[in-house]
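Retro notes
What went well: the complex prediction finally ran end to end.
Inputs used:
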Amino acid sequence: MLSTFEVLSSAVRRDIIAQLRRGPSSVSDLNEALGISQPVVSKHLRVLRDTGFVRVRPEGQRRWYELRTEPFREVDQWLEPYRWMWEDRLDRLGRHLDAQREENQS
Amino acid sequence: MLSTFEVLSSAVRRDIIAQLRRGPSSVSDLNEALGISQPVVSKHLRVLRDTGFVRVRPEGQRRWYELRTEPFREVDQWLEPYRWMWEDRLDRLGRHLDAQREENQS
DNA sequence: ACGATATATTTCGACAAGGGTATATTCGTT
DNA sequence: AACGAATATACCCTTGTCGAAATATATCGT
């Protein structure tokens, strides 16, 4: 099972994700919109599904894939302790210093 | 040259980055703090340097590595068009719908 | 200049990811 | 039941990454 960042390390998968931002798509939709062969699309969607990036809703012979939010939240949370470095908000800096203190105590 | 997400896909590199969050470190610092062999540390730092995650400041025989902000901003910007999905702020949703309209026009 | 310490690079082998092609499965239609 | 469309999986091959070990480079102290 790949980690969240491993999933995002593939440009093809990021393209699929970006396309799904426009709304749910079937495999053939993605195949045509992105010019990626059907088996490759299916394989990547399998990875995206296993890692929680998408969920699938079968409707007849079509399978509609749509984005889920958890992995994005995860990236956002990972980013959190680094934000003080470039966001010049005083409260961020303050919270960072507090967190620093906590870490150094343990 | 690896892309930003490819760099972050390595758990070892994320560990190095997290350690550098505490402040600048030398190779041997990272070697001891993380239990990673010296050549491996150097090699990952090379990658992190080539991709803008860190910069190096030589001081005698030591080389101090410290974080740079650009790649983090990049991740933050990549995340931006997905934020409306889980952040329930009305302005985010509004801006998202505006952006949607723009995209569909082109 | 020499030895020691700190860091960088090279080489190698193991391993896994990615895509192409072929094939299997599933479901609707007739 | 048979066929066709949509999707999933299996297999193969190529390629790139990772870490280990060995070696090279740089800088300081003497």
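What we learned: The longest strand of chain A covers residues 54-59.
What to try next: split runs per interface for comparison.
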